[in-house]
Sequence to fold (436 residues):
Amino acid sequence: MYLFQELQARADADNPVKVGLIGAGKFGSMFLSQVPTTPGLMVHTIADLDPERARQSCRDVGWTEELIKQTNFTDDAAGMLKRGGIDVAVEATGNPSAGVYHALESINNGVHIVMVNVEADVLAGALLAAEAKKAGVVYSMAYGDQPALTCELIDWARSTGFKVVAAGKGTKYLPEYHASTPDTVWHHYGLSAQQAADAGMNSQMFNSFLDGTKSALEMAAIANASGLSAPDNGLDFPAAGMDDLAHVLRPTSEGGQLQSSGQVEVVSSLERDGRPVFKDLRWGVYVVIEAPNEYAAACFRQYGMNTDTSGRYSAMYKPFHLIGLELNISILSAALMNQPTGSTQGFTADVVATAKRDLKAGETLDGEGGYTVWGKLYPAKKSLAVNGLPIGLAHSVTLVRDIPCNQPISWDDVELPESTPAYTLRKTLESQTRDS
Fold:
C-alpha cells in the first residue's frame, strides 16, 4: 500500500491528513497516543460530550500542552462535520443511534468516515455504505478492531485463490456468560469493582464483550462485509486453539464443528468445563482455507502449514490485535488511497436483542452489555422472519408484553420512537431487503 511514503510526502509538503475524532474513550485514546509520532497526520478536532475530559485524555496518553492548544475541542460533532477542515472522521462513540447520525452527517458533508462503531454499522451499515459510495466518500471499518483484521485475512485468502471455509476471532466464552450483567462482569475478568473503577473501565461496555453481544456484532459486520454466512442458530463458540482451527472449523460433513462451509464463527479460549485451551486465540483473528487441488495441499505440508488430518484444510491467523493503536491504517487508506479497510456490502447477518432473564411488560431495555438483553447472531433473513428487534435499537425502550428468558424480542414487543435517523434508516433497510 505504501502508505508511509504517501504520508511522508504530505508531511514534507506541510499538508497533513486532518482527522476529526468523535468520542475520546478507550479506543479513541489509543488512537490519540499514536498521533504525536505519526508524521503527516494531525487531529484537527476532537468532539466529545465532555471536552475537558477529552483534553485530559490527551494528557494521559502523552500529548504536550502545545499540541493540545493546537487542537480544537467541542461537544458538537455535527457542527464539527459541517464546519469542514477535516479529511476523515472517526466515529468511536459506541452508541448505535449516534453513530448512524454522525455517519450520515459525515457523508452529507463529503468527509470520509471510519466506523469504530460496529454497533451502528450492523444496525444500518448497508445503507450507510451505499450513501457514502453515491457521495464519493469512503465508509470504512476500523483497522485494529477484529472485523477489519478478519476481512483483511479473507481478502488475502480469496485473492490468492483459496476457498474461505470459516473466518472470525477468538474470545473468552462459557454459556453462562450470556446472563452476565454489569454487576457480575468483573468477577469473570478477575477484577474487583473498585479496581475496574480505578482503571476507568466501563462495566456495561466490558460486559458486552463477555455476554456474547460484541462477538455477535463483530461476526455480523464480517458477514455483511464479506458475504460469509451466519450460522442458523447463532454462534457455537467452539473451543479451539491456534493449532486446532483447521480441524475444528471444517464442516460437520468433514468431521468438524462448522454448520456449513463459508461462515463466520468465534472460537473460545476456554473448554466448556472451564479449562484453558492450549495456544488459545482469545485476542486474535483467523481464516480457515481449503486447498483448491492436491498440489496446493502438498504445498501446505511442505511449508509447515497447520492442517487437519486430510491435509486439505489449513488456517492463517493473527494472534493479537492492537485496537486503536492500529487505527491510522484506516484513516490513511481513506485519505491517501480512497479505499476502505473493509466495508459493508450487504445485509447478510443481524444481531437480535434476546432476553437475559424473564422480562416483564413495563420494563425498560438497556442495550448492549446491560441487565436485560444480550445480542444473538442471526442470518438476516431469519431475523426478518422473526421480526427481530436489532440490539442497536434496544436502548431505553419499554416492553409491552412479558418475554421469557432467551427468547428473541421483536419489534412488536416494544414501544419505540419513530423519529430518529437510526430508526428510519433501519426500517428502510428491512423494507428494501424484504422487497428484493
